[in-house]
Amino acid sequence: MATIHRTIMRPIITERSSAAYQDRGEYTFEVAPDANKYSIKAAVEQLFGVKVTGVWTSNARGKSRRVGQSIGRRPHTKKAIVTLRDGDTIAIFEG
3-class SS at 23? Predict the structure, then answer.
């Protein structure tokens, strides 16, 4: 299992995810492929000092990409949507 800094790879900040955290308090992160819900919850709580109430995960398969004659593949990714306790926020998404 990865450390907490490798469990949470990066925040996903898009128009859709910013609307989700403003309306429902849901924050989206790209996480390690071998991370489970318990390790994601522990990593977010320890890194940002907040209380996590729910975690949803989804796996996205990498798509095939073609550039000229060569065919490549994008990597598989896993993302987690995390819900926080009322009143808790993560500063990365606010600024």
Answer: helix
Measured between alpha carbons, how far is residue 59 from residues 7, 24, 37, 77 in Å? 14, 22, 13, 6
pLDDT in tens, the chain (95 residues): 567 778 999 999 888 888 887 888 889 999 999 999 999 999 999 999 999 999 999 999 999 999 889 999 999 999 999 999 988 888 877 66
Of 67, 88, 92, 74, the closest CA to residue 25 belongs to: 88
Q: Output the CA torsion 80→84→88→94 (10° steps).
A: 30
Please state the pTM of the whole predicted model.
0.85
